[in-house]
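Researcher: Here's a chain I'd like modeled. Treat it as a single chain, no partners, no ligands.
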Amino acid sequence: MYFLYMFLSVLSIVILLLPGFFLKKTKTLSENAAKDLSAVLLFVGTPALAVYCMMGVDIQSVAPLNILICVLLAIAIHFIPYAFMKLFLLKADDKSAAVAATFGSMFSNCGFMGIPMATLAIAYCEKLALITEAATKEALFYVTIFNIVFNIITWTFGLGMYSRGEKLGYIMKKAFLSPVIIATLLSIPFFIAGFSLLNPIVIGQVEISQIGSIIMYLYNICVPISMIVLGIRLSDVTIGELVCNKYVYICGAAKLVITPLITIGIMWIIMQFMELSPALMIALTVMSAAPPAANGLAFAETYNGDTKTAGASVLLCTIISILTLPLFLLLVSAMI
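Model: Modeled as a single isolated chain. Structure tokens:
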């Protein structure tokens, strides 16, 4: 039953690409719709997601060693597929396609899909039935840590991948002036202090809840907009472009198979020497096995990369993850 619940949960998110697909097919949307929506996603939705992640957890409730393991594995989860892709694409004939595929393999949909999937994976795990609420809060803490690592690497290393030839100083300046990094940095003091803007702020007799509402409104656009953009791109992609692009399959192998297998293997080795938190194991499994980030397509749209390979990688991997993500969650649940 656990596999079925996870299968249906992933499927319900993937179905959200249908509006974008049909609106583009019926020419209701303009040719620039995907690029414009991608800009909204990168510069509005993603910063709101960063703030939401930072505001929703209690740092005092988690063991420091688990935090360290989470940070180290988060870094590894990004660079394991990078090493794999460099090995297989060392002599790539299409550098632009190789960049798009490598980006897709490195950066998972850890926010838009990761947050709801981690929550559902805990909720449906029978072994955690007695501690569901506490385990969910702990898992969301690890998802937050992962998203911090994700944002830093995406907007430095990832941005650099699309800025070949640019000076390092220019790339770093562009990265640290990006809305998502600014949002993350501004949220860190609240994160450390355990103060959440998502909760009502009481000043005298007045209770102010609108700040939290604004953050939630903006965060909630992320999943539907990201899937609508995917749907738009799906309408522009032929079956041949989707299934006959070798770069897409290499990306899928790295992202959906190699990375989660190595991640679970590392956790199994660690478990031979110490006890690992079930919430940490589930959170990292979701992060490692989630399909490529929707902002991979947004980056390609915004920075004039190979949108066909980026879109095909996200689309095909997202569809395949309907099966692979539940399978890896089923595997890790047996280890708990």
